[in-house]
Design a protein that fits this description.
Layout (H helix, E strand, L loop, with lengths): L22 E9 L2 E6 L16 H11 L23 E9 L6 E9 L4 E5 L2 E3 L1 H10 L16 H5 L3 H12 L3 H39 L1 H143 L7 H50 L1 H11 L5 H10 L12 H4 L5 H10 L8 E3 L2 H11 L6 E3 L15 H5 L2 E4 L8 H11 L5 E3 L1 H5 L1 H6 L4 E3 L3 E7 L7 E7 L12 H78 L4 H99 L4 H9 L4 H16 L8 H61 L3 E7 L9 E7 L8 E2 L4
Helix pairs in contact: 5-21, 6-17, 6-18, 6-20, 7-17
């Protein structure tokens, strides 16, 4: 379903005679042929008159593009950049609309540029295109509707519109906003009506056929039903069979439960007798356990006694060892006393020799004044050297800065004197800001390319003549000069991917192998008119570059003339030359689209070349050369100054090193003498301390007495340990006697328990057999229960017993054998009934269901059919009178206008009853040289 259009408010002319949405002002800047123009249309019919090429169509294009139209709408170009005036980077269109009141003014601006970008302004505020389209819709401005806006390039498109399409576009353009909505609704309703009518007719036929087929099969259906009743009875009997088997399993299960009950009774009696025999055995085991615990306690006490005796024996042995050690120390003290007396005599002799050497050592007087004088001289020389070093570093820093400035100056001068660099600078100034980066990238990656790549094109073109350079640059679009040309599709894709950020075009050249071009020649008539060359002959470039320039801009059709050609420009056009250049002007003829005989001419002045013959400022080059000479002299002078400072620094460093060596020799002599004196004093002091230490040796008698006291104390401790060991031995003998008594009683208990356990085993065997019998009976019960459950589950899966089914079961045989016989009898009777079509009953019942379904659907579709007819009548009552009135108004205006042109014309509504999608507008005309009857205007 088509979405309803937004309702448009009813409009009327205001006091200023303008309608809401009328254009009150148009302003163009750098748009197609216009530099700048402002025009203010009137409130009613506006005519724009002028010769071919004067810009009439440009004004129409501007209106369409500014009011939300796309470039494809105009049939001239597919990109918005094509509408920017040649030689300019950007332009704009501004349209002012009258609002719903006289005071309300709406301004719409569309800015365009050569990069194919657009910017929209609404009353001076930047907005997205969507908001502009919303404003346009409020005023029912439809630049895409050929009945409202018809550019000259789309006249053929309008002529191809069928009457149906003319009606649709007319309703949208000038009719009430509800007309196209109602028309679409009527088309949908008429299609829906046809679907309902077709469905009702088809279902009626199907219903009659089904009723006739069922009437033919009623007898066969009756016989099938008799057979089904017998088979149904067999099914009922088969349902009772599993329930009879279930009853049999239930009886077996109850018997098994009774056997389990008897077995458990026998097991309880055996268990009671077993418990009576176990009680005295348990009592004997308890008494024996108590005796075993007491035996274990006595055993633990005996182990503790043994550990104590071992510990005391170890301590007694350690005391004996200590006594022996003390006796040995006494003997060692006596030997050490004899050795100490001999050492004292030797120490006194060595001390006297050292004191004598110290007294005989001569006294040394160091030259302190000489050392201080050398020190002050070294400090002065070091200070001077440091100053020279700082001066040298400052001069070297200045020299580095001068050399950097000189290097930059030389590079700048070299770049300015290089022709390619000049042209790259010119491109950069003209807007290609990243052309240097793009050029350097190409030089670095040439080894990755499959074939030669040229670019920028400006560097590949050489023009020897300044006048010819003016012609070539004026004829070729600016973008080509910053372009790169490849000869391989892979190279093109590689460059497009990597040069995209540098904003430079990439073109791919494909060689034309179809044939060679005719050689260039100038006819005699051309020479008489001053034409002497052609634009593709006045410059040199690689073949690929030249072919691209020629094919893109038609250089082979642009000729070059002299001042004489200026005076005879009209005669040149007669030779079929539609584009040529003279030193002052550029002439171009255009052929009208409406006929080869209609032509329009344009003349533009020749401008000086800004790119091909670009040059740098000579004054700037001279300044750079002067600056280079000054920097070279400054660098040479600075190098001499640094060299002299380096010589002075080296002399000062040598003199300071010589004085430093003299001072260090004096200091070393003083240090050696002082060291010798201190070593002698240290030797004397050491020998004095050693002698004093030997003289302070211990008293031998006191040490021996001390050792005797320690031996006495150790012997007393040994005696105490022996007494304790004796007591522990007595305690151990008593414990062993007690342990033996308790152990004998425990052995007697073991014998009694073994006698009782012999009778217990017979009772345990009987109880175990009773337990196994109970388990066997329980397993039998479980098996019977599982069989019973399975039988019940199988019976329930066959049939659940209901009151009705239970009543039927009572009428059937009560044993399995009788029931099987009855089933076989009924099956035989059912098989005796024979019929040809086994599916007759299913087919009969299926047709009965289809008859009910189709009858209900037929009734519902009849209701929908009547409702659809009512809706169509309602919509048609609103839409058709309004549409007839609109077509009559259009016919009156159309006929009146044709009468004023002395011809006849008529616009009529082509009605087709209920086929609303076939309604259309017919246009009839009659010219003076045609017959009296009006003729239809048919689509081309």
């Amino acid at each position: 379903m088509v979405e309803p259009r937004v309702k448009r408010p009813k409009i009327s002319r205001g006091e200023d005679d303008y309608l809401p949405g009328n254009i009150t002002e148009i302003e163009l800047r750098n748009f197609m042929t216009f530099d700048h123009i402002v025009c203010k249309p009137g409130p009613r019919l506006n005519l724009v008159i002028g010769p071919n090429g004067s810009g009439k169509s440009s004004l129409v294009c501007a209106i369409a593009l500014c009011l939300g139209g796309e470039p494809q709408l105009l049939g001239r170009a597919t990109n918005i950049s094509a509408y920017v005036k040649r030689g300019e980077e950007s332009g704009h269109i501004k349209i002012s609309l009258r609002g719903f009141t006289k005071e309300e003014s709406i301004s719409i601006v569309r800015k365009i540029d050569t990069r194919n970008k657009s910017e929209w302004l609404y009353n001076g505020k930047s907005v997205p295109k969507k908001e502009i389209l919303e404003v346009i819709r409020k005023f029912n401005i439809q630049v895409n509707n050929l009945t409202q806006f018809l550019p000259q390039d789309r006249v053929c498109e309008f002529a191809k519109l069928t009457p149906i399409q003319l009606l649709e576009e007319t309703e949208k353009a000038v009719g009430d906003p509800e007309l196209p909505v109602q028309h679409c609704a009527l088309v949908e309703k008429s299609r829906e009506l046809k679907r309902y009518q077709k469905a009702v007719e088809k279902m009626g036929e199907s219903l009659k056929q089904l009723i006739a087929l069922n009437a033919m099969q009623e007898k066969d259906v009756e016989r099938v039903r008799q057979r089904d009743e017998l088979l149904q009875k067999v099914d009922s009997m088969k349902k009772k069979l599993p329930w009879l088997k279930y009853d049999m399993k239930k009886t077996e299960y109850l018997n098994a439960q009774k056997r389990v009950k008897d077995a458990k009774k026998n097991l309880d009696e055996a268990a009671k007798k077993l418990n009576d025999f176990k009680a005295p055995i348990e009592k004997q085991k308890e008494e024996k356990g108590k005796l075993d615990a007491k035996c274990k306690q006595i055993s633990n006490l005996m182990n503790v006694n043994i550990n104590k005796r071992v510990d005391l024996l170890q301590k007694a042995n350690e005391a004996a060892v200590q006594v022996q050690g003390k006796y040995k120390e006494m003997e060692d003290l006596k030997r050490e006393e004899d050795t100490r007396k001999q050492s004292i005599l030797e120490a006194k002799r060595r001390l006297a020799a050292a004191e004598e050497d110290l007294q005989n050592l001569p006294v040394y007087d160091p030259p302190k004044e000489e050392i201080e004088r050398l020190k002050s001289q070294i400090v002065e020389l070091t200070s001077s050297t440091h100053q020279k070093m700082q001066q040298k570093k400052e001069k070297e820093r200045s020299l580095g800065q001068m050399r950097t400035a000189l290097r930059n100056c030389v590079d700048s001068l070299r770049d300015m004197e290089n022709a390619n660099t000049k042209r790259l600078h010119a491109l950069q100034k003209s807007g290609a800001e990243k052309i240097f980066d793009a050029y350097q990238w190409l030089q670095q990656h040439r080894h990755e390319l499959n074939k030669d790549v040229y670019g920028p094109v400006l560097l590949e073109v050489n023009v020897s003549d300044q006048v010819h350079a003016n012609f070539l640059e004026g004829h070729v679009a600016y973008y080509i000069w910053k372009s790169f040309i490849t000869q391989d599709a892979g190279d093109r894709d590689f460059l497009v991917k990597n040069l995209q950020s540098f904003d430079v075009p990439v073109l791919n050249y494909v060689r034309n192998e179809s044939g060679q071009k005719a050689p260039f020649s100038i006819s005699k008539q051309m020479r008489e008119l001053g034409i002497y060359s052609r634009l593709d002959q006045v410059f040199d470039a690689p073949t690929a570059v030249k072919e691209v320039l020629t094919s893109q801009f038609g250089l082979e059709n642009s000729y070059i003339g002299s001042d004489k050609t200026d005076q005879k420009a009209d005669d040149v056009a007669k030779l079929g030359i539609l584009d040529f250049w003279t030193p002052q002007n550029h002439y171009h003829w255009s052929v009208s689209r409406y006929g080869d005989k209609d032509m329009s001419a344009s003349v533009e002045p020749v401008h000086d070349s800004r790119l091909l013959l670009c040059g740098m400022d000579n004054g700037e080059i001279e300044n750079l050369k002067s600056r280079k000479y000054e920097l070279e002299n400054s660098v040479a002078n600075m190098e001499e100054v640094i060299k002299s400072l380096q010589i002075e620094q080296r002399l000062l460093e040598d003199e300071a090193a010589k004085l430093q060596k003299q001072r260090e020799d004096m200091v070393d002599i003083r240090r050696r003498e002082m060291k010798k004196w201190k070593e002698m004093e240290s030797c004397v002091e050491q020998r004095k301390r050693k002698l004093l230490s030997l003289e302070k040796g211990g008293d031998l008698e006191a040490a021996v007495a001390k050792l005797i006291n320690q031996v006495t104390r150790s012997n007393v401790e040994r005696f105490k340990y022996a007494v304790k060991i004796k007591d522990l031995l007595i305690e151990a003998v008593s414990g062993k006697w007690n342990f033996a008594e308790k152990h004998l009683v425990s052995i007697e208990y073991d014998a009694k328990i073994r006698d009782l356990e012999v009778n217990l085993k017979d009772h345990e065997k009987f109880a175990h057999e009773a337990s196994l019998h109970v388990q066997y009976c329980e397993k039998d019960v479980q098996d019977c229960y599982q069989q019973l459950s399975a039988a019940k589950k199988h019976a329930e899966s066959i049939a659940i017993i209901t009151p009705e089914l239970a009543k039927l079961f009572l009428e059937m045989p009560t044993t399995i054998e009788e029931l099987d016989a009855a089933i076989q009898d009924n099956i035989s009777q059912a098989n005796s009934i024979v019929f040809l079509n086994r599916n007759v009953l299913q087919e009969y019942e299926e047709r009965e269901r289809q008859i009910e379904t189709i009858s209900a659907k037929l009734e519902a579709d009849n209701k929908e059919l009547q409702k659809c007819l009512a809706d169509i009548d309602t919509l048609k009552g609103k839409w058709l009178p309004m549409l007839r009135n609109l077509v009559n108004q259009i016919n009156e205006t159309f006929s009146r206008n044709f009468q004023e042109m002395a011809v006849a014309g008529e616009v009529s509504l082509d009605e087709h009853g209920a086929d609303f999608d076939q309604f259309g507008i017919l246009i009839k005309v009659k010219f003076r040289w045609v017959s009296r009857n009006l003729l239809f205007l048919l689509p081309i």
